[in-house]
Design a protein that fits this description.
heterodimer; A: mainly alpha; three-stranded mixed β-sheet; 3 strands; 64% helix; elongated; B: 151 residues; alpha+beta; Translation Initiation Factor IF3; 3 helices; 46% helix
Chain lengths: 275, 151
């Protein structure tokens, strides 16, 4: 038998000596870099597509939402009144042959949505709280601004891209996917906040064209300010700009353009019709 | 909020995992010195079988779990490929620990040598892509403990 000589092994050849932390950050950075790149490229492709998307396809997409949200044609008195106001505002739009429909939906949220196909959803609580026609016009004009800037399709498409990417890379239900989605969403929130501010400015302009002044432009934000103002760290993670910031920006814009603020038109008649 | 927990467990996994691994290696090195004189070889037979007084099976087994950090590293490796370095040290520890336990069992039999060393490695509770899988593995080392006649 071969003589056995015990010898201590000094260097372990079976374990890589690289620092795990370094590997962690290199991998994380690399993978997120690629994901973000794909996201940006798809996002740009989407922006191009959205500009050229035919109305027919948009209507088809809109039809899907109508079904999911169970939206109906305007029938109640409040809906018809709101629709009339929307139609009046529509006359001041740069593009004439666009049709917009208003839907009122029961909900405890004071919110409004712009969905593909020219559908604007106003939640009943919002309508309850609105105090003047000018304020409601500002909200409708803001949503119209999203349509004109085609944000409604952009937002939708980006959400879709996000889900597709994370599913392809990480599988449908994994921790890595969740982390990736969160990071990408955070990166995109700034984009979203920019869109909101652009829609605000658009609405301001439309208000001026319709009424010749911009009274009531800040009313909605004043009201939600108390409810929704966020601490500084949370601002970074919000899709919408902080209400008080929006008020400041709107007031700056009003001053810059020299718009006037006159008497508001009360909204009693719409409110009476709300159940 | 979920992100917070991921980061929390990553940190916990990294610090706890590293501390445990370091301690385990110190322990392994110390015990390897202790059993230094007991040879373990992979030959199945020895030339002069008449020298054998007694022989028998001896084995050592160990189950080691992944930590969150190592698993996260491996999950990222799964995407782009390459050496899964975070698991290398884990398996190295498992094999050496299993040998040490086997040697301890053999030492109880007063063995002079362990022949025919073999390893088995198997994952425990690792269901691919399923949440809540345990993610640990077992290493079994076994061989034939041989005691020679006193001369």
């Amino acid at each position: 038998m071969v003589k056995f000589t015990p010898r201590e092994i000094k260097k372990n050849v079976n374990v890589s000596s690289a620092s795990p932390l370094r590997e962690f950050f290199v991998l994380l950075g690399g993978i997120f870099g690629v994901v973000v790149l794909v996201y940006i490229v798809l996002g740009i492709a989407l922006d191009v597509l959205v500009e050229r998307m035919p109305a027919r396809i948009e209507d088809a997409v809109g039809g899907f939402f109508i079904k999911t949200y169970r939206l109906e044609e305007p029938v109640t008195a409040a809906e018809i009144k709101t629709q009339e106001l929307l139609d009046e505002l529509g006359r001041y739009l740069p593009e004439k042959n666009l049709a917009f429909t208003v839907h009122i939906k029961e909900s405890p949220d004071a919110n409004a949505l712009a969905l593909p196909g020219g559908h604007i959803v106003i939640f009943s609580t919002l309508l309850d709280e609105v105090e003047s026609e000018n304020e409601l016009a500002m909200i409708l004009a803001h949503e119209l601004g999203h349509f004109i800037n085609r944000d409604h399709l952009r937002g939708l498409g980006r959400g879709l891209v996000l889900v597709v990417i994370s599913t392809v890379f990480f599988g449908a239900d994994s921790t890595v996917a969740n982390v990736a989605q969160r990071t990408l969403i955070t990166a995109d929130l700034k984009f979203s906040r920019k869109q909101e501010l652009a829609a605000d400015n658009f609405a301001l302009e439309l208000l001026q064209r319709k009424y010749g002044h911009v009274a009531g432009a800040c009313d909605f934000f004043e009201r939600i300010k108390a409810k929704r103002d966020l601490p500084a760290f949370a601002k970074f993670l919000s899709t919408h700009p902080n209400p008080s910031d929006r008020i400041i920006l709107l007031k700056e814009e009003i001053g810059r353009r020299g718009y006037l603020v006159k008497e508001k038109i009360p909204l009693e008649d719409i409110k009476l019709f709300l159940d | 909020m979920e992100l917070f927990w991921v980061l929390f467990f990553l940190g916990l996994g990294y610090f706890a995992g590293t501390a445990i691994e370091k301690k385990h290696y110190q322990n392994i090195l110390a015990r390897e010195k202790m059993y230094f004189k007991l040879p373990v070889i992979t030959s199945r037979k020895i030339e002069d079988e008449s020298r054998i007084q007694e022989s028998g099976l001896c084995y050592g087994s160990v189950v080691i779990s992944l930590d969150y950090f190592k698993r996260f590293l491996a999950a990222m490796r799964n995407i782009i490929g390459g050496r899964v370095k975070s698991y290398e040290s884990l398996l190295d520890r498992g094999r050496r620990e299993a040998i040490l336990r086997m040697k301890k069992a053999a030492a109880k039999l007063d063995a002079d040598v362990i022949l025919n060393l073999r390893f088995e490695t198997s994952g425990i509770g690792q269901v691919t892509r399923k949440k809540g899988s345990i993610g640990s593995f077992e290493v079994l080392a076994y061989g034939t403990a041989v005691k020679f006649k006193q001369q």
